[in-house]
User: Fold this.
Amino acid sequence: MPNRLANEDSPYLQQHKDNPVDWWPWCDEAFEEAQKQNKAIFISIGYSSCHWCHVMEEKVFENTECAKILNDDFICIKVDREERPDIDKHYQEVHMLLNRRAGGWPTSIFATPQNKPFFAGTYIPPESNAGSIEGMGFIELTKLIAAKVRENDEQLYKNADEVESFLAHEDHPKEATVLKEEFYKNFMLQAKNNYDTRNGGFSSAPKFPHTSTLSTLLDIDALFDDKAARAMVENTLVNMAKGGMYDLVDGGFCRYSVDEKWLVPHFEKMLYDNALLCKLYTKAYLAYNDESYLVIAKEVADFWHNFMSEDALFYSASDADSDGVEGEYFTYTYQELYEALVQNGYENAQEICDMLHISHHGNFEGKNIIYLEEKRPEWFDGVKHILSSLRTKRSYPFIDKKVQTSWSAMMIDALFRLGEVDASYTKRALTSLAALLETMYKDGILYHSTLIHKTPKVEAFLEDYAYLAQAVLSAYRATQDEIHLIMAQRLANKALELFYDKGVWYFSVGEFRVKAEATDNTYISSISIMLEILQSLSTLLEDEKYKHFAFKTMEYNSYELGRKPIYYPKMLTETLRYLKGDRTIKAKEQTLRTNALKLAQLRYPFVLLKSSEDDGFMVCGEKSCFANTKSVDELENLIANSF
Assistant:
């Protein structure tokens, strides 16, 4: 018989509706019941495409012994971290406080009946392994906690009170530091220190794409002609696109690679990764004119359009597993591919298998992940069709059809960037932006997430305002329709009203008042996106108050930004922008549209576009316009000579 989660919209919660655990969704009634029955609270946080969340479900939540303990002695609450990122961020802070290291998913939180947390973990296997608390299995751990709560163990409640008081304390920076261009030199030193010279990227294993770091390196190269920055970007982009973490067959990037070569991925595909990487590869193409980058950007955009969208709205993620097996959809046996190649007339079938790293023993659990060491050979498109046909016989991974404002806006923003090269993507971006606003912006209220064709319920967080405003400003750049500029201003004003306080930004201010992260972690910090929005609005509207809010934000974070800029790539970019200043190109709307590609290829990274009745192109700084030209080709030198 299904539990209470059967009534929830979230695909992740729906995955757990048939567990023998008597799950509650996050609600006041659950916490009231815990106090009424004097039961400990167990909070489990995850998301639908999370591999280890599936493992914990199979090993623990489907385990009848574990379920009986939980049902007898706990109030159990399931949370979709994508639906409620405010709850997730709060408990990630709890995990960091209790364990002195970052958490992850699944997140496992144990709290008193009064919902004061005292224990935090991630995946916990059912059986114990060794005698320490670290090795304690779920069965032993839950029995111990249940006993201590029944006995009203004094130490447990004391620990919970201490955690509560620590969480209530807000840290503030030690001091402000003068903002300086030289911050970028420290960033370069730290990037080089983390850089993998052989494979690209900024760690060994597991390896994440670090999109924000790469984007800032592109800006540093553009501003300071830094050959080392360019080398790190190009080597990383080339290696990430060879296969493995990048799906050479369907397109799209997996979340991360478990090895240093980008070969073996965690196979789930997330909208935010693909949106940010689509924009990054487009940006690299515009900077370096390498067609291979444009190919990847288009393939990523097309993958999400063809596989992961409906009615111009984007799905949030697809799973790593098919039929309960990780990577089953994505991998191939030597025999199936070799025979398919021979049947399709390829006399060099063995050579093709060798080049694609297809072997009898495999490179992933006895099967093979497609991987190309060199650039795509001429025969690849034909073989890709065969590889795709083989996949059609398999079960496609589970798709989370949740629509999220922030992640969707990231992809829309990327499509506008790609549209500067190919106008068909601008049309696609405008259609998706209209669909997103119609779905998520109701009666002047912005919402965070919903399922396709469902009414949204969770109101927006800072990241939703930030990324949507960014996408709307990109729409303004592409169309020069002032309705987009007005909408961006409206979103920025509301974000300032709800989430800003004297240089501090909050991610959420409702049930949980959680400070927004200034560092770029899973994706770019919403604070830094707000810095981009505020500076753009200040220039476009000629309104200094927006730049004032941007400065106060940078000043608040300046001490850490100066010392550890590698953790704040986007904020560093926006600081350099603040110090160097925007350049605005004014021209007739049709002139801007006709020259969109050449304007996008201008080397200076902080160029805005604004329609006017001027003939030719007017080049403007912060306070005045200083040059006019009839030729788009002269703009590069005019901007360069303005500093």
User: Anything to note?
Assistant: The CA atoms of residues 472 and 487 lie 7 Å apart. The first strand starts at residue 23 and ends at 25. The chain has a mean pLDDT of 95. DSSP finds 25 helices and 25 strands in the chain.
